CENP-V/GFA domain-containing protein
Amino acid sequence: MATHTGKCDCGQLEWTVKLEDESHVLCHCDTCKKLSGGAFTLNQIVPKDNVKVLKGDLKNYTYAGESGNPVHCYYCANCTTSPFHHQTVLGDKYVVRTGLLDNYKELKPSAEIFGKAKLSWLPEVATTFETLPPS
Ligand SMILES: [Zn+2]
Ligand SMILES: [Zn+2]
């Protein structure tokens, strides 16, 4: 388990995340597309305690997730970069945006989730699940 550092676009927010392995989970859900403006997001689910905010102010946007439970999206109060989400349905875990970590280019895709909403012209780069992997 290695500690990774991340910074928002404006540089006011800095954080560290301990990852279980060096991988990204691609999320193709429609909310990720809306919030990022991109085709998918890069993530990993980690225990809350693995995330430390070193500096900066976080704001919080709350919306209803796939299960209907609230999801808190935390973002830099200045530039809106969002380092992690808390899906209350996951309890003491955060969904961290691995694509915002300083060494994101070294991480490899390990799975694709919400494949049902994936853009048809994207190639498959890892095992794809319709929604979430069976738990
Ligand atoms: Zn910022
Ligand atoms: Zn998503």
User: Anything to note?
Assistant: The two ends are 22 Å apart (CA to CA). The chain has one helix and ten strands. The CA atoms of residues 46 and 93 lie 6 Å apart.
